[in-house]
Amino acid sequence: MLLDEPRLTDLPRAHFSEAELDRRWHAAITPRDGAIHALVARRGGGGAHELPARAPISVEHGLAGDRWYATSPRDPEAQLSLIDLRIVRALIEDARELHVPGDNLVVDLDLGVAALPVGAELAIGAVVLAITAKPHTGCVKFRARLGGDALRWVNAAAARDERRRGVFARVITGGTIGVGDRVVAR
Q: Is 39 exposed, middle or buried (0-12, 13-18, 19+ CB in 10 A)?
C-alpha cells in the first residue's frame, strides 16, 4: 500500500499537550512481546510511505526501497529507525496512521538506554541490527505532523534515556522481515 504525503495543511492533526501525551503513554503500556507490530515503513521521496507486509533488508541498502539509500551522503548511523509502539499509541489516535512519526519499524520493545545500550544487537529472524550512537530527535516533518508539544515531549531532557523518539540502527546481517516477526535483544 502506498500512502501519499498530504499537503502540509492536510496532515493528520493529532497534536496533544505534553501532559496529555504523558497520560496517553502511561495508559498505552502493554505487555511487551518483542514483535514488529504495526508496520514496516518504506519511506519514499516527498513523504510517501509504503507499508509492505514483508520487506528485504540488506547491509548495503538498508530497507529495500527506503529513501535512506537514495540520500547522499548516506549516514550509516541512521540506516534504519525504530520507535516503540507505546509511544506511537500516545502520539496517534488512529491505528491506520501509525506510520506518521516516520520510522521504518514500530516495535513492541523497550528502546531505552538501559534495555538497549549503543552497540546492542537486535535479531529479527535472520536479520541482525545494531543500535547506533546517533540520537533520534525528530525533524521538521515530525513537528509538522504531530506538533511542537509532541516534539518537546519525545525529546524531554528528563526522559532522554527512555528514547521516546526512538533509535537508529545499522544492518549487520540482512534478510527479510515482516509485521509480526519477533524482535529479540541479543
A: buried
| Rounded Cα gap, residues 15 and 69, in angstroms | 31
Q: What is the set of domains in the chain, with CATH numbers?
A: 2-185 (2.40.33)
Amino acid at 27: A
pLDDT in tens, 8-20: 334 445 577 888 8
Which is it for the CA torsion 17, 25, 186, 178, positive or negative? negative
Structure pTM?
0.83
In tens, the pLDDT along 135-176 reads 999 888 888 889 999 999 999 998 899 999 999 999 999 999
